[in-house]
Design brief:
This protein is of the alpha/beta class and about 725 residues long. It contains 23 helices and 23 strands. The radius of gyration is 27 Å and the shape is globular. It binds adenosine-5'-triphosphate.
Length: about 725
């Protein structure tokens, strides 16, 4: 693209202030800061965690008050802890309140909820006099080394603002020039205000446009969706110029989860929003009406689907299969997950069906791999932040660790995906770390049976806006969500056993949480409470929900890859975030190994910007006095939750047994069935507890609710401040 075609924008000055070496002091007014900005320091490891080698002890922070006013919790300090120690890679955050900022009273929207974009714009128009500028560093003001390594650093320079004047803003898109994109594509990217391609985009887009098969690896949140989205749309645009008639879909994107499929199609739709004519993009996932999806498939240009539903559609319609055989791109997103157990079979069926030569009817079923279409026209694009281990395990057989290298894993992919080239381009844009750059990792040590209590304490104490809590089971999601709700926190569930509508509703509510909304009736702005999403690993891959500041691993992740992907739901793009592991004493060592594994490659390479071992996972000390004072609330909330769940479950069991009894033509007596069902083997303790919980009367429930309400209304004197923690 010549310079004449370039859309120009006078680049605002980044204004990177150099990091200050010392920040003093006592004369400073107190100010609210985020938990991760406090000056953590190491103290001795308690005896019980002696074997937790490498966690470097608990940490304490002095001179900090914890203030809870209304439903807002903040750390308030005058200490230079907020300056952030010199070696730390976490050097202030763009949403840190300025020194002069007061903590907002609960009835006023907190200062940090002001749209950042507008603030930035205003600041550019009227730069404050030197003396008035905040003296603390912000993310924008960080030192140069961070800017060099942060792939999204340039985004800070992007003028954001009112969508209405979006089209009028001219931006310098010269960074995209080497990618040889059409002017139309450049201008639609400019609308998104993405001034710079991310490394994975810079490296993969030209290869894809040249017609190569590509395997792309890059850290979570580093823009992989557009790394394949842009060239697909670019090819579609080119096709519009040369062909008048519709030629069937151009691309099929396979995604492991429904939510991710919808997100990918939304993301590509956003990209296309600035085009004169857009491709028709549809998502084909379970939980939605098949007939409607069939209609959409007929006119689709880009299809994003989950393997299960896609296979259902392909296997039931030869027309669909025929049209898909003509695609130019097959994208496997989150490839290591998609090619893993659970999804693998359907993905494999789809791959085989697409590659099978000959007629597209049921006779196909008998054809074998040997009959694959040789030299097909389709390009295959494979993306993920993690690649090796799961694929390797798959090859080696369940439960066995094996020592396959990168090359062998690649062989496996080559074989399965039937790339059209003998050697696809393997592009690793995050050779140093799979973890996002602005992620801070922490660990809270607690008793095995105290996770609920510590989860509540972390949520109550952290002043971040949105949290995503990962558990390893659907039942835990079902229990923790109402538990937190009973404690007055806005928790929403997400797991694969929910109906699709409920899944989407949970995500929507979570996304809306923490935002300002206009209450028409009251004619004023209402500040919605920051939401908490309680999820299984169904939310671990790819979900791009802006504003998640905190990821909590209620259960430690099952694998290093799961840790990477779960933690990757925060600190996406240019933003920062914290990932906190809740660990029982026995979990500490294996978890330490797991995290070390994630960081091992980076350490081995000793690359610049690599976190030192001591900086990888900070052990976070939650003031045990606060925890002790929260215990009563949690115990009561748990009793209430258990009783409600047991009643619900009992009701379902009763329903099932009543139906069975009716079918058998016998009388149903629930007490009798209870007695018959009693045994003394494994699980009888749980059964007994369930029975007790179920027998809690309505009056007792009401009593407990009232008592909990009273507890939540009481302030918890933390002993570290004249101020108090109050409501949950
Ligand atoms: N060139 C760019 N400049 C600025 N922001 C970008 C750019 N490309 C993508 N983004 C934004 O970065 C965010 C993360 O992108 P995306 O969801 O594609 O990440 P990802 O690498 O696929 O992450 P994951 O591995 O977790 O799936 C999105 O909100 C997207 O809009």
């Amino acid at each position: 693209m010549g310079p004449d075609k370039k859309r120009k924008f006078s680049k605002p000055q980044a204004g990177h202030a150099k990091r200050r070496k010392t920040l003093a002091v006592d004369s400073k007014p107190k100010r609210a800061v985020r938990a991760d900005q406090l000056l953590w320091k190491t103290v001795d490891v308690p005896e019980m965690f002696d074997d937790a080698e490498g966690f470097f002890g608990l940490e304490v922070v002095e001179g900090v008050d914890i203030v809870k006013e209304g439903d807002k919790v903040q750390f308030v300090t005058a200490v230079s802890g907020t300056s952030v120690p010199e070696e730390s890679e976490f050097e202030g955050f763009e949403d840190s309140p300025k020194e002069s900022e007061e903590i907002s009273p609960p009835d006023q929207p907190p200062a940090e909820t002001k749209p950042k974009a507008k603030k930035a714009k205003k600041a550019k128009k009227e730069p404050p006099p030197e003396a008035e500028r905040p003296s603390e560093s912000t993310a924008k003001d960080d030192d140069d080394s961070e800017l060099e390594t942060n792939v999204f650093s340039k985004i800070h320079e992007v003028p954001e603002g009112n969508d209405d004047d979006d089209d009028d803003v001219e931006v310098d898109m010269s960074q995209w020039e080497p990618l040889n994109l059409s002017p139309e594509m450049i201008s639609t990217i400019a609308r998104l205000k993405f001034l710079t391609p991310t490394p994975i985009q810079s490296r993969t887009i030209p290869e894809i446009l040249e017609g190569h098969d590509v395997i792309g690896k890059a850290a979570t949140g580093s823009g992989k969706t557009l790394a394949f989205g842009i060239p697909i749309v670019e090819r579609w645009l080119a096709r519009q110029v040369t062909t008048e008639t519709k030629t069937g879909p151009i691309a099929l994107v396979l995604s492991p989860t429904r939510e991710l499929a919808h997100q990918i199609s939304d993301h590509i739709k956003q990209l296309c929003a600035g085009l004169k004519k857009s491709p028709y993009i549809c998502s084909v996932t379970g939980g939605l009406a098949v007939v409607k999806q069939q209609r959409q498939l007929e006119k689709a240009d880009i299809i994003v689907g989950t393997p299960g539903r896609m296979w259902e559609m392909i296997s039931s319609s030869s027309a669909t299969l025929a049209s898909l055989r003509g695609i130019s791109f097959l994208v496997i997103d989150e490839a290591d997950r998609l090619l893993k157990d659970g999804h693998f079979k359907e993905a494999e069926e789809i791959l085989n069906a697409l590659d099978r030569a000959g007629p597209t009817n049921e006779d196909d079923e008998e054809s074998s791999d040997d009959e694959k279409t040789p030299g097909h026209a389709r390009q295959t694009l494979v993306f993920s932040a993690t690649f090796n281990k799961n694929l390797q395990q798959k090859l080696a057989g369940k439960g066995r660790y094996n020592l396959m290298g990168d090359a062998e894993s690649l062989e496996y992919l080559l074989k399965k995906l039937n790339f059209r080239e003998e050697r696809p381009k393997y592009i690793d844009a995050s050779p140093v770390s799979q973890m996002a750059e602005n992620l801070k990792e922490g660990l809270v040590l607690c008793g095995d049976m105290e996770k609920d209590l510590y989860l509540y304490a972390v949520l109550l104490l952290q002043p971040t806006r949105r949290a995503l809590v990962f558990t390893n089971s659907i039942n835990s999601v079902r229990r923790i969500t109402p538990l937190l709700q009973n404690l007055g926190l806005p928790a929403y569930p997400l797991h694969s056993d929910m109906i699709q509508k409920a899944r989407l509703r949970s995500i929507e509510r979570f996304k809306e949480s923490g935002s300002k909304q206009q209450d028409a009736a009251a004619n004023k702005n209402v500040n919605k409470a920051a939401g908490i999403l309680i999820a299984t690993d169904v939310a671990a891959r790819g979900l791009d929900i802006p504003g998640i500041d905190l990821v909590i691993h209620y259960h430690v992740p099952r694998s290093a890859d799961d840790y990477v992907h779960r933690s990757g739901r925060t600190a996406r793009a240019a933003s920062s975030g914290v990932s906190v592991l809740l660990c029982g004493p026995k979990e500490a060592v294996p978890t330490q190994r797991l995290v070390a594994k994630v960081h091992a490659a980076a350490e081995a390479k000793g690359a610049a910007g690599t976190k030192r071992k001591s900086e990888i996972v900070h052990t976070i000390d939650i003031d045990r006095r606060i925890v002790a004072r929260l215990r009563e609330r949690v115990v009561l909330a748990k009793k209430l939750t258990d009783a409600a769940l047991a009643k619900e479950k009992g009701g379902k069991d009763d329903h099932w047994m009543r139906a069975a009894a009716e079918e058998l033509g016998v009388e149903f007596d629930s007490d009798e069935f209870e007695t018959v069902g009693t045994w003394s083997g494994r699980g009888s303790g749980r059964k007994q507890k369930e029975k007790e919980a179920r027998s809690v009367s309505k009056a007792e429930m009401a009593q407990m609710r009232a008592a909990l309400r009273e507890l939540l209304g009481k302030r918890v004197n933390t002993g570290v401040s004249e101020k108090y923690l109050a409501l949950g």
